[in-house]
Amino acid sequence: MMEEHRQYFRILFFIYLLFCSSQFTISQRLVNFISGVPTLWINKLTYTPILLERNTGLQFLYGFSCNFYPTECFLGISLVVYNSTAGETIYIEGGHLVWSANRDRPVKANATLQLGQDGNLVLADSDGTLVWSSNTTGKSVSGLNLTETGNLVLFDTTNHTVWQSFDHPTDCLLPGQNLVSVTAVTKSKLQQSVSADNSSQGLFSLTVLNGSWATYIDSDPPQYYYTSDNPNSPYWSFDGHILTALQYPPTSIAQYIQLGHDGHLRIYQLDNLENNMLGLNWKEVCDILTLSDCGYPMVCGRYIICANEGQCTCPVEVNFFRPFSERKPNLGGTELTPISCDSSQYHSLVELKNTAYFSFEFSHELNSSVFWIEGKNIEDCQRACLSNCSCKAAVYDLYLNMSLGGNCLLLNEVFSLMDVGVGTAFLKVQNSPNAPVIFPRQKMPFKVIIGCTLIGIILILSVCSALSKKRSEKRKAGDFLDLEPILPGILTRFSYNELKIITDDFSRKLGKGGFGSVYEGTLSNGTKIAVKHLDGVGQAKESFLTEVKTVGGIHHINLVKLIGYCPKKATGF
Predict the structure, then answer these.
(1) What predicted TM-score, i.e. pTM, was given to this entire model?
(2) Which superfamily does 303-430 belong to?
(3) Residue 532 assigned as binding residue
(4) How many CB atoms lie under 10 A from the CB of residue 282?
(5) How far is CA 542 from CA 237, 480, 554, 555, 569, in A?
(6) Cβ contacts of residue 477 below 8 Å, gap of 6+?
(7) What are phi and psi of 51, to 5 degrees?
(8) 170-273+284-291 in CATH: which number?
(9) Strand order, beta sheet including 172-173
(10) Which of the 8 DSSP states describes residue 238?
């Protein structure tokens, strides 16, 4: 029974917290201006307002806002709906965080924010750990102001701005907020949140650089995936140095530009002021970046290939790469064996034909990467990557004028690849010491190809000629096999080695007659024979026929009888 009561209490408490995260009542006077130091504020969970416009309706609120699962709180500026009632009671509903001081380090209950006597605004967690600071010590700060455009300002005794949140954007630009060109001192940029549920800084950024505003993924060096110098838009203005967010139409209730966790740059407007427990109703009105699905660096994750339809596939070289999830290839992949600089002799490149890379074009436009090489052939591109241990891949493409060579981009990190009909990508892999090293295919020079072809033709002709001559000789020798029908009786065919044995290697010469010499021989049965060895080659057949006709045409008891022949050399007996 007690356990049932505890479960019932937990449910009621959860409903209460859920309700409080969207709407709550505060009995205190809120202002948008605080003058005088020091001042201290303590985080009490849900919304802990510090500054708020006192006009009823949609307002910017500066203070603590908290999530409950897990419990984490952020000091920042939110868009909320403010309703005033009698006395000092106010109602705050909805809420959308557009700037945060501690997006990477959320705090707990009882965290403190203090504007000190020294002019520094400091956020500390409940255990006293320093989380964030405005770094304005000694700058004569005398007060804090939240403007109607959502800009938090620290000002001095002359009402001069000492520090403002507009100079330190997170992932949103509000109308009237500027993004200035990157310099050695200023590093103004938008940086996306990891996900809708995780406000920590991600890898995507928006900045102004070299006369363009550009989006990139934060690697070393940065890899750009969009650049533009377009100054004409109802949603922003750009003069080559400053990108300013504009409100369009001017009558819109509220609006902001946000760099999303997927790398898209979108414009959102408040649809209406209807509020509920799910918060304010924001709608997307524009996606600023004009890219294909495969043009975003992490659309398929690391080492995964994106097709035009947005499908993600792992490189076919399964011996070197694997996806993190077979069912969700868009989560990316990794090498099976990490690249090791201590074993660079076992590095090789895997070739992916008809493969491009999102940053190839933009790296050339900005000319900001030390890993961009122009006017090289494909072999130089491969060698450049193999000789640089930090290089994980090389991407190569030709100029329109092929005689000038091509462009080569070396990558220290490999994100999504693009399956298109241009370019060639080479992924570096680590081979096992016991396995054969796979070297990239080398293109053979034209002169070498011609020379090898001519040598091959000569060899083929030589072999054909030798085979033809050999067949001709065999046909000539084989002619003797057809003599039996014209000879009287049945002849025995002997091999040349047999005759050498019978005649003791032609050692007993009896004499010399027409067309050759005659040698004495003895058969295995003791019969004495005479073996005539014909001279010459071209006339061997004719000589042999003449001898056959002469000997074969005479029949006498005291004359020899023809008993056999040897076709290897024109020999009869």
Answers:
(1) 0.69
(2) Hepatocyte Growth Factor (3.50.4.10)
(3) yes
(4) 17
(5) 107, 10, 19, 22, 13
(6) 567, 568
(7) -130, 140
(8) 2.90.10
(9) 172-173, 255-259, 265-276, 279-287
(10) E
